[in-house]
Amino acid sequence: MSRNQQSSWHYTRQKDILSVTPVHLEVVSERATDLELCTPETLRRTQEELQWYRSLYENTPSVYFTLDATGKILSVNQFGADSLGYRREQLIQTSIFNLFEESDKQRLSNAFKELLTVSPESEITNWEFRLNARKIVWVKIAARILPTEEANPLILMVCEDITAQKQTEDLLRESEQRFHTMADTAPVMLWMSGSDSLCNFFNQSWLNFTGRSLEQEQGLGWLENVHPEDQDFCFKTYESAFNARAKFKMEYRLKRHDGNYRWILDSGVPRSTSTGNFAGYIGSCIDITERKLTEVALQETQEAAQAQFDEIESLNRLKDEFLSTVSHELRTPLTNMKMAIQMLGISLKKEQNFLLEIDKPETERSKAARYFQILDNECDREINLINNFLDLQKLDNVAKPLVLETIQLQQWLCRVLQVFQARNRNISQQELQINIAANLPPLTCDPFSLERILIELLTNACKFSPPEAQITLSAQLKSKQIQFQVINTGVEIPTTEIPLIFNKFYRIPSNDPWKQGGTGLGLALVQKLTLSLGGTIEVESQSNCTCFTILLPVSSEG
User: Fold this and answer.
1) Domain that holds residue 488
2) pTM for the full predicted model
3) What is the pLDDT of residues 131-150, one digit of tens each?
4) Rounded CA separation 265/263 (Å)
5) CA 10, CA 27: separation in Å to the nearest integer?
6) 181: which of 30, 41, 260, 295 is 20 to 30 A away, CA to CA?
7) Both 483 and 521 in a single domain?
8) What residues contact residue 154 under an 8 Å CB cut-off, 6+ apart?
């Protein structure tokens, strides 16, 4: 007989593998004629099979007990005794209840009573109990009554070691408890969802904020407190991120427990199990209402400022257009007046010795000569005002293209000073000096603009210097720049006024002892022209001495 064939004993007693005898299995034939028919070979094979079943029973990796109705241990397999930390002889004839914790003994006793009274076919499955054994702490029990013809029933109980599983569950439970404690004490609102996308946890900060219970928030309940205008956006943002397993951030309005809606920044990240499987999302929320209000206020302020700026720009544009128009309209009659004055001078020269009268000191001139000179000077003054203003308008509105030339400063500065003296022979009563360094390199710049700058500064110096005072024009090399200085004495500019003197139409109050007058445009034009040449201008004034310093690069670029 092979192991795959069923013996007569196996067929009739397949549910009764263990005998009542505590330490070994016995073969009991049902009929004597069966034994008489067995040959020695058959008996040998039967014994081998029994020995195989015995080895299988002893070494099966579970704890097998055979108990009587009182719970006395009648047999235990070798693997089971070893796993419990006992010798088999120490367990036989002892109570099974001695192996269990005091708190679980009554539960096991009640289970056995139910098993013995309900039905012979009933069984206990998947009951978990704690042991006080040496090695195993937790077991899962399956038990049933063994079919037997004897009066006293026998119980087969199989114990599976679940100690490691229970320890893992305890650690997980402890970890979850720590997480819940940390989450509930965190100063931000936290939430979690499962792999089904439904939210299953909200910390105490969230519940306190919304004034709702955990049960109300779970699933999609949290959406009920989201502002109706934001609900669709929130759900689609979360759903899109969930399907992509991606991080997300979203801002929405959430109703607080007092009924007010607050702006919330919600950040969510995917979470995974220890094996790397997707487990859902965890997220945090912070109240950003104050930030949103600040952003709105800032946006409104910026919009108002932009509107104001646009209005000012529009007004400036209208002003510039108006002044430009007026200036052009003024230039035409002034040009005619200048031509008429010149023609008058020619006529007077023919009729009278007019040139001699003009060259006399002012007190000795005839009335006609004095009136003519006043008329000519004032006409020039008005023409100069209009020209300066128009030039400023051009510089403000569009960058003037530079006409670059290379000039030799020694000769060029002398010519500029001569031009200035010729134009201002009647008002220039000061001593003009020129100081030019010998090592000056050629300067590449717009000579017209530079001449305009220097003549304006010299004119300004003459206006505010007493007669016979000294005015100096100097030029020298400073590193890779040419330094021009116009220095005059007699009037000091107050320190508080220096930052203002380059503003259009600005004139220093009570600072014109010789009543020379002015438009307040000259220095503004000087600064604009200097900047257009790529240079800088500074002014120092102390001890009744004023110095304007201009620095220009040796090579200017338009």
Assistant:
1) 402-553
2) 0.42
3) 887 678 888 988 888 877 66
4) 7
5) 10
6) 260
7) yes
8) 20, 66, 67, 68, 74, 145, 146, 148
